[in-house]
């Protein structure tokens, strides 16, 4: 819970820093030239400062080097390119001064604020309970991963593919003439550009890689039986008359367990966590008597 609150606090400070940067330095990128955990003595030997070193004091308050470094370490690296430690430290000081002023005004005794604090406290407690009893405890084990992998192997299978080229013609007579021309040594790419009416004509008839099961049956039956660079017979479809060839084949492959393990975990984990959460609620409800005034609920 302390880690979550520290992250929340850092985010708030970071927001203030970025806002100040945009307002006062709209085009500047500040170097990281602030407080270091080391200092150099006259002999040139670096001395490591302990975390309890007082970094800044104001009024009756202090900020230690360790406290500040915890905040700085939680600043994302990409933001550190825009912010220096001095700016972040200034915002930490500002936050503490604002908090102190709120206390001086006894705002923590205001009923509305107390109600908000209570609600936030309750939310944090619920989040902490879920973190401790669900998120930290519920994991997907190797046996569950393997079982899912074996049962879902088809979804991890990449079916056979061919790199397909196509010349589409309107009549069988025209297709027969073109096929003879190709068999006599005609250039498939040039003829596709000049004669084909199909998709990919401008790209030499290239349709790219197509996967088994995604092509119309009349064509699929032919192309997956072709050898590399072999011309097909004329294939009639609803679109016209095709002359086909393939330039490359990719065999069917199955992804290994290691390749898909993380994806399987992310697939199984939410349902497993939800089941644990539902069980936790059922257990808690089973420990107490819950009486609902159904009439008042209407």
TrEMBL record:
The keyword Isomerase applies. Residues 1-31 form the signal peptide. Keywords: Isomerase, Rotamase, Signal. Transmembrane segments: none annotated. Gene3D superfamilies: 3.10.50.40. It is an enzyme of class 5 (isomerase). PROSITE patterns: PPIC_PPIASE_2. The keyword DNA repair does not apply. Residues 159-248 form the PpiC domain. It holds the Pfam family Rotamase_2. This is peptidylprolyl isomerase. GO terms for molecular function: peptidyl-prolyl cis-trans isomerase activity.
